[in-house]
Specification:
Length: about 240
């Protein structure tokens, strides 16, 4: 006990601070995921609806990154809302971190057709691996997914979180979770080099269309459309009732 008063309190304080950060991140992520699920639309229901009422098509392939492969990505929903069109080929891409250090190459990519113009691609990585989408896409090519990377658009859903007294966490923990979320890794860093944001603005890349959505439970999401072939930039804001 004497060591605690002679400097031993320093590692205890640091350890306690780290534990608070970890618990806050886990609790906040769980609350955020539960609230987000309330807004989700089943992917198969959306595809069936689009097949019954076809939308105009544009050339190329659209890849929508999402953490929940069974739900329609936010970027897809709001792209349909604003642009009223679909790409010729649409891919729902999910990255899963397995409970093993490394995943064998033969188990890296899982492809599932979801209709005439939709398919689901799941990439599996171990917890010791850094997800490498370009290499995984090369494996997907060998499994039959044919696409031209330069005519492929990547849609990212971004969330911005605001404090909410109904979150179930104390105000200080809300603010800490928001700080952690704002400084978390950006999914755009996983994209092929031609589609990554450049310069100081991590939300800007060559030809970006941003769709920001604010929900009533103080969770907002935005979709970023990164397309190398597009030469202009625009910004669209929409709100959910």
């Amino acid at each position: 006990m004497l060591k605690v008063f002679h400097g031993g309190w320093v590692p205890l304080l640091i350890g306690g601070f780290v534990i608070v950060i970890m618990l806050t991140w886990r609790r906040g992520a769980r609350i955020l995921a539960a609230k987000t699920r309330k807004l989700e639309t089943p992917l198969r229901d959306l595809i069936e609806s689009l097949e019954k009422k076809p939308r105009p098509r544009v050339p190329g392939t659209a890849v929508f990154l999402t953490a929940t492969p069974d739900s329609a990505p936010t970027a897809l929903l709001h792209s349909l809302k604003h642009y009223k069109v679909l790409h010729e080929n649409n891919v729902i891409l999910t990255i899963i971190t397995e409970n093993v250090p490394r995943v064998a190459t033969k188990d890296r990519v899982e492809i599932e057709p979801l209709g005439e113009s939709f398919m689901r691609v799941v990439l599996h990585f171990g917890f010791m691996e850094t997800p490498n989408i370009p290499k995984a896409l090369a494996i997907a090519r060998k499994l039959g997914w044919n696409f031209d990377i330069m005519s492929t658009s990547f849609f990212l859903s971004r969330r911005s979180v605001r404090p909410d007294p109904r979150s179930g966490m104390p105000a200080w923990q809300d603010r800490l979770f928001i700080f952690l979320a704002q400084n978390a890794d950006d999914a755009s860093s996983l994209l092929p080099a031609a589609h990554r944001p450049r310069g100081r603005d991590r939300h800007a890349s060559h030809g970006v269309v941003s769709i920001a959505v604010a929900a009533s439970m103080a969770v907002s999401a935005s979709g970023n459309h990164c397309q190398s072939a597009m030469k202009r930039r625009s910004h669209v804001i929409c709100r959910l009732a």
